[in-house]
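Practice problem: FAD-binding oxidoreductase
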Amino acid sequence: MSQDARAARSATPYWWEAAPPAALPQTPVPAKVDVVVVGAGFAGLSAALVLARAGRSVAVFDAMRPGEGASSRNGGITSGNIRPSFAAISKRFGEKVALGIEAEGKTAREFLRAFIADEGLECDYQPVGNFKGALGYDQYDTMARAAETLSKRLGIEAYAVPHAEQTGYIGTDFYRGGTVRKDIGGLHPGKFHAEMLRVALAAGVDVHGETRVSGISRDGTGFRVATARGEIAARQVLVCTNGYTDRATPYLQRRLIPVRSRIIATDDLPADVMDRLMPRRMMMGENRQLGFYYRPSPDGRKILLGGRDASRRGDPLEPTLRLRAGLAQLFPELENVTLSHSWFGNVAMNRDMLPRLFEHDGIRYASGFCGSGVVWAPWVGSRAAHRLLGAEAGHSAFASRAPAAVPLYRGDPWFVPAIIKGYALQDHLAFRRARR
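Answer key — C-alpha coordinates:
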Protein backbone atom coordinates (compact mmCIF):
# COMPACT_ATOMS: atom_id res chain seq x y z
CA MET A 1 0.00 0.00 0.00
CA SER A 2 1.42 3.41 -0.96
CA GLN A 3 1.88 6.08 1.67
CA ASP A 4 -0.91 8.23 0.20
CA ALA A 5 -3.26 5.26 0.21
CA ARG A 6 -2.62 4.89 3.93
CA ALA A 7 -4.13 8.32 4.57
CA ALA A 8 -7.80 8.76 5.42
CA ARG A 9 -10.31 9.99 2.87
CA SER A 10 -11.63 12.71 5.18
CA ALA A 11 -9.86 15.06 7.62
CA THR A 12 -13.10 16.05 9.36
CA PRO A 13 -14.45 14.20 12.41
CA TYR A 14 -16.39 11.03 11.75
CA TRP A 15 -19.01 12.31 14.19
CA TRP A 16 -19.80 15.26 11.91
CA GLU A 17 -21.29 12.90 9.31
CA ALA A 18 -24.38 12.52 11.49
CA ALA A 19 -24.12 15.67 13.63
CA PRO A 20 -22.13 18.57 12.18
CA PRO A 21 -21.70 21.59 14.50
CA ALA A 22 -24.62 23.95 14.03
CA ALA A 23 -24.11 27.43 12.60
CA LEU A 24 -26.60 29.40 14.70
CA PRO A 25 -28.33 32.54 13.40
CA GLN A 26 -26.49 35.63 14.63
CA THR A 27 -28.87 37.39 16.98
CA PRO A 28 -28.19 40.75 18.68
CA VAL A 29 -25.89 40.63 21.70
CA PRO A 30 -27.91 41.75 24.74
CA ALA A 31 -26.77 44.80 26.68
CA LYS A 32 -26.82 43.01 30.02
CA VAL A 33 -27.32 39.53 31.50
CA ASP A 34 -26.89 37.88 34.85
CA VAL A 35 -24.16 35.50 33.65
CA VAL A 36 -21.85 35.35 30.64
CA VAL A 37 -20.42 31.92 29.87
CA VAL A 38 -17.38 31.75 27.60
CA GLY A 39 -17.28 28.48 25.66
CA ALA A 40 -20.27 26.59 24.24
CA GLY A 41 -18.95 23.06 24.65
CA PHE A 42 -20.10 20.41 27.11
CA ALA A 43 -19.02 22.40 30.18
CA GLY A 44 -20.41 25.75 29.09
CA LEU A 45 -23.80 24.40 28.01
CA SER A 46 -24.13 22.25 31.14
CA ALA A 47 -23.52 25.31 33.31
CA ALA A 48 -25.80 27.53 31.26
CA LEU A 49 -28.66 25.05 31.50
CA VAL A 50 -28.45 24.93 35.31
CA LEU A 51 -28.33 28.73 35.50
CA ALA A 52 -31.21 29.31 33.09
CA ARG A 53 -33.44 26.85 34.90
CA ALA A 54 -32.66 28.68 38.14
CA GLY A 55 -34.06 31.85 36.60
CA ARG A 56 -30.81 33.57 35.57
CA SER A 57 -30.42 35.29 32.22
CA VAL A 58 -27.45 33.64 30.47
CA ALA A 59 -25.49 34.46 27.31
CA VAL A 60 -22.97 31.92 26.01
CA PHE A 61 -20.26 32.91 23.53
CA ASP A 62 -18.03 30.69 21.43
CA ALA A 63 -15.32 31.69 18.94
CA MET A 64 -16.35 28.79 16.68
CA ARG A 65 -19.62 27.08 15.98
CA PRO A 66 -20.93 25.69 19.28
CA GLY A 67 -19.30 22.33 19.93
CA GLU A 68 -16.81 22.66 17.08
CA GLY A 69 -13.90 22.16 19.45
CA ALA A 70 -13.18 19.07 21.54
CA SER A 71 -16.86 18.45 22.37
CA SER A 72 -17.57 17.06 18.88
CA ARG A 73 -14.06 15.75 18.15
CA ASN A 74 -13.39 13.36 21.07
CA GLY A 75 -13.71 9.60 21.21
CA GLY A 76 -17.05 9.59 23.02
CA ILE A 77 -15.83 7.30 25.81
CA THR A 78 -17.46 8.06 29.16
CA SER A 79 -14.37 7.19 31.17
CA GLY A 80 -13.93 10.05 33.63
CA ASN A 81 -10.28 9.03 33.85
CA ILE A 82 -7.88 10.75 36.21
CA ARG A 83 -4.34 10.63 34.86
CA PRO A 84 -2.42 10.57 38.18
CA SER A 85 -2.73 7.27 40.00
CA PHE A 86 -4.56 6.93 43.30
CA ALA A 87 -1.17 6.50 45.01
CA ALA A 88 0.23 9.65 43.37
CA ILE A 89 -2.78 11.77 44.37
CA SER A 90 -2.65 10.40 47.93
CA LYS A 91 1.04 11.26 48.21
CA ARG A 92 0.52 14.82 47.00
CA PHE A 93 -2.88 15.74 48.42
CA GLY A 94 -3.63 13.05 51.02
CA GLU A 95 -5.72 9.88 50.89
CA LYS A 96 -8.92 11.74 51.79
CA VAL A 97 -8.63 13.88 48.66
CA ALA A 98 -7.74 10.85 46.54
CA LEU A 99 -10.79 8.93 47.77
CA GLY A 100 -12.95 12.00 47.21
CA ILE A 101 -11.79 12.24 43.60
CA GLU A 102 -12.46 8.54 42.93
CA ALA A 103 -15.90 8.82 44.55
CA GLU A 104 -16.67 11.93 42.52
CA GLY A 105 -15.78 10.07 39.34
CA LYS A 106 -18.43 7.51 40.17
CA THR A 107 -20.95 10.28 40.90
CA ALA A 108 -20.06 12.14 37.70
CA ARG A 109 -20.62 9.05 35.54
CA GLU A 110 -23.96 8.46 37.26
CA PHE A 111 -24.82 12.13 36.71
CA LEU A 112 -24.08 11.82 32.99
CA ARG A 113 -26.17 8.67 32.65
CA ALA A 114 -29.10 10.27 34.49
CA PHE A 115 -28.78 13.52 32.52
CA ILE A 116 -29.01 11.64 29.21
CA ALA A 117 -32.03 9.65 30.41
CA ASP A 118 -33.89 12.49 32.15
CA GLU A 119 -33.48 14.93 29.26
CA GLY A 120 -34.22 12.31 26.61
CA LEU A 121 -30.96 12.97 24.76
CA GLU A 122 -30.62 10.91 21.57
CA CYS A 123 -26.86 10.35 21.51
CA ASP A 124 -26.29 6.59 21.04
CA TYR A 125 -25.37 6.13 24.69
CA GLN A 126 -24.24 2.55 25.27
CA PRO A 127 -23.29 1.42 28.84
CA VAL A 128 -21.13 -1.43 27.53
CA GLY A 129 -18.18 -1.25 29.94
CA ASN A 130 -14.48 -0.66 29.38
CA PHE A 131 -11.57 -3.09 28.97
CA LYS A 132 -8.08 -1.80 29.83
CA GLY A 133 -5.16 -3.88 28.66
CA ALA A 134 -2.02 -4.68 30.66
CA LEU A 135 1.34 -4.59 28.88
CA GLY A 136 2.93 -7.21 31.14
CA TYR A 137 2.07 -9.61 33.93
CA ASP A 138 3.45 -7.34 36.68
CA GLN A 139 1.28 -4.51 35.40
CA TYR A 140 -1.68 -6.89 35.28
CA ASP A 141 -1.20 -7.73 38.97
CA THR A 142 -1.16 -4.03 39.89
CA MET A 143 -4.25 -3.32 37.80
CA ALA A 144 -6.08 -6.31 39.25
CA ARG A 145 -5.49 -5.03 42.79
CA ALA A 146 -6.73 -1.57 41.78
CA ALA A 147 -9.92 -3.08 40.33
CA GLU A 148 -10.48 -4.98 43.57
CA THR A 149 -10.07 -1.73 45.53
CA LEU A 150 -12.64 0.06 43.34
CA SER A 151 -15.07 -2.79 43.85
CA LYS A 152 -14.67 -3.06 47.62
CA ARG A 153 -14.30 0.59 48.61
CA LEU A 154 -16.57 2.38 46.13
CA GLY A 155 -18.95 -0.33 44.96
CA ILE A 156 -17.88 0.01 41.31
CA GLU A 157 -18.31 -3.15 39.28
CA ALA A 158 -14.69 -3.78 38.30
CA TYR A 159 -12.77 -7.00 37.90
CA ALA A 160 -9.60 -8.51 36.42
CA VAL A 161 -9.51 -10.48 33.17
CA PRO A 162 -6.56 -12.91 33.06
CA HIS A 163 -4.66 -13.44 29.82
CA ALA A 164 -6.26 -16.84 29.28
CA GLU A 165 -9.73 -15.20 29.14
CA GLN A 166 -8.73 -12.09 27.22
CA THR A 167 -10.05 -13.09 23.78
CA GLY A 168 -13.55 -13.12 25.23
CA TYR A 169 -13.20 -9.34 25.50
CA ILE A 170 -10.79 -8.34 22.74
CA GLY A 171 -9.41 -10.23 19.77
CA THR A 172 -5.71 -9.61 20.31
CA ASP A 173 -2.80 -11.31 22.01
CA PHE A 174 -0.97 -8.02 22.48
CA TYR A 175 -1.95 -7.61 26.14
CA ARG A 176 -1.21 -9.83 29.12
CA GLY A 177 -4.69 -9.64 30.55
CA GLY A 178 -6.48 -6.54 31.76
CA THR A 179 -9.34 -5.16 33.81
CA VAL A 180 -12.96 -4.30 33.16
CA ARG A 181 -15.03 -1.47 34.57
CA LYS A 182 -18.75 -1.73 33.95
CA ASP A 183 -19.52 1.90 34.86
CA ILE A 184 -17.92 3.19 31.64
CA GLY A 185 -19.61 3.29 28.25
CA GLY A 186 -19.71 5.21 25.02
CA LEU A 187 -21.81 7.78 23.21
CA HIS A 188 -21.84 9.80 19.99
CA PRO A 189 -20.25 13.10 21.07
CA GLY A 190 -21.56 15.06 18.09
CA LYS A 191 -25.13 14.00 18.79
CA PHE A 192 -24.63 14.51 22.52
CA HIS A 193 -23.55 18.11 22.02
CA ALA A 194 -26.33 18.79 19.51
CA GLU A 195 -28.86 17.50 22.01
CA MET A 196 -27.34 19.57 24.84
CA LEU A 197 -27.57 22.63 22.62
CA ARG A 198 -31.20 21.87 21.81
CA VAL A 199 -32.10 21.56 25.49
CA ALA A 200 -30.17 24.71 26.45
CA LEU A 201 -31.85 26.80 23.76
CA ALA A 202 -35.25 25.48 24.81
CA ALA A 203 -34.47 26.56 28.39
CA GLY A 204 -33.88 30.13 27.24
CA VAL A 205 -30.07 30.17 27.05
CA ASP A 206 -28.85 32.82 24.58
CA VAL A 207 -26.07 31.10 22.58
CA HIS A 208 -23.83 33.09 20.23
CA GLY A 209 -21.62 31.00 17.97
CA GLU A 210 -18.76 32.37 15.88
CA THR A 211 -18.54 35.29 18.30
CA ARG A 212 -15.12 35.46 19.90
CA VAL A 213 -14.68 37.02 23.35
CA SER A 214 -11.68 39.35 23.25
CA GLY A 215 -11.51 40.53 26.84
CA ILE A 216 -13.14 40.59 30.28
CA SER A 217 -12.83 43.59 32.59
CA ARG A 218 -14.21 44.67 35.94
CA ASP A 219 -17.08 47.12 35.95
CA GLY A 220 -18.00 48.03 39.52
CA THR A 221 -19.48 44.93 41.10
CA GLY A 222 -19.84 43.20 37.73
CA PHE A 223 -17.99 42.76 34.45
CA ARG A 224 -17.79 44.08 30.92
CA VAL A 225 -17.26 41.35 28.33
CA ALA A 226 -15.95 42.46 24.93
CA THR A 227 -17.03 40.26 22.02
CA ALA A 228 -16.60 40.38 18.25
CA ARG A 229 -20.15 41.77 18.00
CA GLY A 230 -20.22 44.22 20.87
CA GLU A 231 -19.87 44.54 24.63
CA ILE A 232 -22.15 42.98 27.21
CA ALA A 233 -22.45 43.66 30.94
CA ALA A 234 -22.75 40.73 33.36
CA ARG A 235 -22.95 40.25 37.10
CA GLN A 236 -20.94 37.01 36.85
CA VAL A 237 -18.63 35.36 34.31
CA LEU A 238 -17.79 31.68 33.88
CA VAL A 239 -15.00 30.57 31.52
CA CYS A 240 -15.18 27.03 30.07
CA THR A 241 -12.77 27.17 27.13
CA ASN A 242 -10.47 24.25 28.09
CA GLY A 243 -8.19 23.26 25.16
CA TYR A 244 -9.26 26.30 23.12
CA THR A 245 -8.36 28.94 25.70
CA ASP A 246 -6.86 32.08 24.15
CA ARG A 247 -5.62 35.57 25.06
CA ALA A 248 -9.05 36.72 26.17
CA THR A 249 -8.36 34.98 29.50
CA PRO A 250 -4.57 35.23 30.02
CA TYR A 251 -4.73 34.00 33.62
CA LEU A 252 -6.22 30.69 32.44
CA GLN A 253 -4.10 30.51 29.30
CA ARG A 254 -0.89 30.44 31.36
CA ARG A 255 -2.20 27.40 33.25
CA LEU A 256 -3.57 25.17 30.48
CA ILE A 257 -1.49 23.52 27.78
CA PRO A 258 -3.40 22.60 24.60
CA VAL A 259 -2.36 19.15 23.34
CA ARG A 260 -3.56 17.59 20.11
CA SER A 261 -5.38 14.30 20.28
CA ARG A 262 -5.98 12.50 16.96
CA ILE A 263 -8.46 9.78 16.05
CA ILE A 264 -8.67 7.52 13.01
CA ALA A 265 -11.73 5.59 11.86
CA THR A 266 -11.64 2.49 9.69
CA ASP A 267 -13.96 1.84 6.84
CA ASP A 268 -16.85 -0.47 7.69
CA LEU A 269 -15.55 -3.89 8.69
CA PRO A 270 -17.31 -7.23 8.10
CA ALA A 271 -19.54 -8.32 10.97
CA ASP A 272 -17.46 -11.44 11.62
CA VAL A 273 -14.30 -9.31 11.96
CA MET A 274 -15.97 -7.02 14.49
CA ASP A 275 -17.29 -10.05 16.36
CA ARG A 276 -13.78 -11.45 16.57
CA LEU A 277 -11.89 -8.24 17.42
CA MET A 278 -14.46 -6.60 19.71
CA PRO A 279 -16.81 -9.39 20.76
CA ARG A 280 -18.48 -7.38 23.54
CA ARG A 281 -18.37 -4.02 21.72
CA MET A 282 -16.71 -2.49 24.79
CA MET A 283 -14.74 0.73 25.03
CA MET A 284 -11.00 0.00 25.13
CA GLY A 285 -7.81 1.46 26.57
CA GLU A 286 -4.38 0.53 27.84
CA ASN A 287 -1.92 1.40 30.58
CA ARG A 288 0.74 3.53 28.86
CA GLN A 289 1.75 7.19 29.18
CA LEU A 290 0.68 7.67 25.56
CA GLY A 291 -1.75 4.79 25.49
CA PHE A 292 -4.28 4.35 22.72
CA TYR A 293 -8.00 4.59 23.38
CA TYR A 294 -10.31 2.84 20.97
CA ARG A 295 -13.83 1.65 20.50
CA PRO A 296 -16.41 0.40 18.02
CA SER A 297 -18.50 3.03 16.30
CA PRO A 298 -22.03 3.28 17.73
CA ASP A 299 -23.36 1.18 14.84
CA GLY A 300 -20.72 -1.49 15.51
CA ARG A 301 -19.26 -1.36 11.98
CA LYS A 302 -16.01 0.60 12.44
CA ILE A 303 -13.11 0.76 14.85
CA LEU A 304 -12.06 4.22 16.04
CA LEU A 305 -8.61 4.57 17.61
CA GLY A 306 -7.06 7.69 19.13
CA GLY A 307 -3.89 8.93 20.77
CA ARG A 308 -1.72 12.00 21.26
CA ASP A 309 -0.54 13.93 18.21
CA ALA A 310 2.89 15.58 18.50
CA SER A 311 2.47 17.75 15.39
CA ARG A 312 1.78 21.46 15.73
CA ARG A 313 1.28 22.89 12.27
CA GLY A 314 -1.08 21.90 9.50
CA ASP A 315 -2.44 18.39 9.16
CA PRO A 316 0.55 16.13 8.39
CA LEU A 317 0.27 12.47 7.44
CA GLU A 318 2.74 11.16 10.04
CA PRO A 319 0.36 11.21 13.05
CA THR A 320 -2.21 9.23 11.04
CA LEU A 321 0.45 6.69 10.09
CA ARG A 322 1.47 6.34 13.75
CA LEU A 323 -2.11 5.52 14.72
CA ARG A 324 -2.37 3.10 11.78
CA ALA A 325 0.73 1.33 13.09
CA GLY A 326 -0.80 1.16 16.57
CA LEU A 327 -4.01 -0.32 15.16
CA ALA A 328 -2.01 -2.96 13.27
CA GLN A 329 0.03 -3.75 16.38
CA LEU A 330 -3.19 -4.53 18.24
CA PHE A 331 -4.98 -6.18 15.31
CA PRO A 332 -2.48 -7.44 12.68
CA GLU A 333 -5.27 -8.40 10.28
CA LEU A 334 -6.11 -4.69 9.94
CA GLU A 335 -2.66 -3.72 8.66
CA ASN A 336 -3.99 -2.80 5.22
CA VAL A 337 -7.43 -1.56 6.25
CA THR A 338 -8.59 1.64 4.58
CA LEU A 339 -9.42 4.65 6.74
CA SER A 340 -12.51 6.77 6.32
CA HIS A 341 -11.50 9.61 8.69
CA SER A 342 -8.52 11.08 10.55
CA TRP A 343 -8.97 14.23 12.62
CA PHE A 344 -7.63 16.01 15.68
CA GLY A 345 -8.79 18.29 18.47
CA ASN A 346 -7.22 19.97 21.47
CA VAL A 347 -7.36 18.60 24.99
CA ALA A 348 -6.13 20.74 27.91
CA MET A 349 -3.52 19.60 30.39
CA ASN A 350 -2.32 21.37 33.54
CA ARG A 351 0.64 20.80 35.83
CA ASP A 352 -1.08 18.42 38.25
CA MET A 353 -3.28 16.79 35.56
CA LEU A 354 -6.57 17.23 37.44
CA PRO A 355 -9.79 18.98 36.32
CA ARG A 356 -10.24 22.32 38.01
CA LEU A 357 -13.02 24.54 39.31
CA PHE A 358 -11.68 27.82 40.74
CA GLU A 359 -12.08 31.58 40.96
CA HIS A 360 -9.64 34.41 40.27
CA ASP A 361 -10.43 38.12 40.48
CA GLY A 362 -14.14 37.30 40.60
CA ILE A 363 -14.16 35.23 37.40
CA ARG A 364 -15.05 31.55 37.70
CA TYR A 365 -13.24 28.91 35.67
CA ALA A 366 -14.20 25.30 34.86
CA SER A 367 -11.47 23.69 32.76
CA GLY A 368 -8.51 21.33 32.58
CA PHE A 369 -10.30 18.06 31.76
CA CYS A 370 -7.05 16.38 30.66
CA GLY A 371 -8.54 14.28 27.89
CA SER A 372 -11.60 12.98 29.78
CA GLY A 373 -14.08 15.75 29.10
CA VAL A 374 -17.07 13.60 28.11
CA VAL A 375 -17.67 12.95 31.81
CA TRP A 376 -15.81 15.77 33.52
CA ALA A 377 -16.92 18.73 31.39
CA PRO A 378 -20.70 18.37 31.97
CA TRP A 379 -20.11 17.54 35.62
CA VAL A 380 -17.66 20.33 36.46
CA GLY A 381 -19.69 22.80 34.39
CA SER A 382 -22.82 21.99 36.36
CA ARG A 383 -20.93 22.24 39.69
CA ALA A 384 -19.60 25.66 38.63
CA ALA A 385 -23.13 26.83 37.92
CA HIS A 386 -24.36 25.69 41.32
CA ARG A 387 -21.47 27.56 42.95
CA LEU A 388 -22.45 30.72 41.08
CA LEU A 389 -25.94 30.23 42.51
CA GLY A 390 -24.53 29.73 46.01
CA ALA A 391 -26.03 26.24 46.15
CA GLU A 392 -24.72 23.34 48.22
CA ALA A 393 -24.75 21.20 45.05
CA GLY A 394 -21.67 23.10 43.92
CA HIS A 395 -19.45 21.02 46.19
CA SER A 396 -16.67 19.26 44.30
CA ALA A 397 -13.30 17.67 45.03
CA PHE A 398 -11.98 19.74 42.12
CA ALA A 399 -13.03 23.07 43.64
CA SER A 400 -9.72 24.41 44.88
CA ARG A 401 -6.95 26.82 44.05
CA ALA A 402 -6.01 27.42 40.44
CA PRO A 403 -3.43 25.08 38.89
CA ALA A 404 0.07 26.51 38.92
CA ALA A 405 1.14 28.60 35.95
CA VAL A 406 3.58 27.03 33.51
CA PRO A 407 6.88 28.93 33.71
CA LEU A 408 7.63 31.15 30.69
CA TYR A 409 4.46 29.98 28.92
CA ARG A 410 2.21 32.57 27.27
CA GLY A 411 0.10 30.51 24.88
CA ASP A 412 2.56 28.93 22.41
CA PRO A 413 3.05 25.25 23.41
CA TRP A 414 6.29 24.88 21.45
CA PHE A 415 7.59 22.34 23.98
CA VAL A 416 4.73 19.82 23.65
CA PRO A 417 6.30 17.71 20.84
CA ALA A 418 9.44 17.19 22.94
CA ILE A 419 7.36 16.16 25.97
CA ILE A 420 5.34 13.70 23.90
CA LYS A 421 8.53 12.20 22.45
CA GLY A 422 9.86 11.85 26.01
CA TYR A 423 6.70 10.00 27.05
CA ALA A 424 7.03 7.78 23.97
CA LEU A 425 10.55 6.83 25.03
CA GLN A 426 9.32 6.03 28.55
CA ASP A 427 6.60 3.84 27.07
CA HIS A 428 9.11 2.04 24.86
CA LEU A 429 11.39 1.27 27.80
CA ALA A 430 8.47 0.25 30.02
CA PHE A 431 7.16 -2.05 27.30
CA ARG A 432 10.54 -3.76 26.94
CA ARG A 433 10.72 -4.30 30.70
CA ALA A 434 7.16 -5.61 30.83
CA ARG A 435 7.86 -8.21 28.12
CA ARG A 436 10.96 -9.69 29.79
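Discussion: The chain has ten helices and 16 strands. Students who identified this feature from the C-alpha coordinates alone can consider the problem solved.
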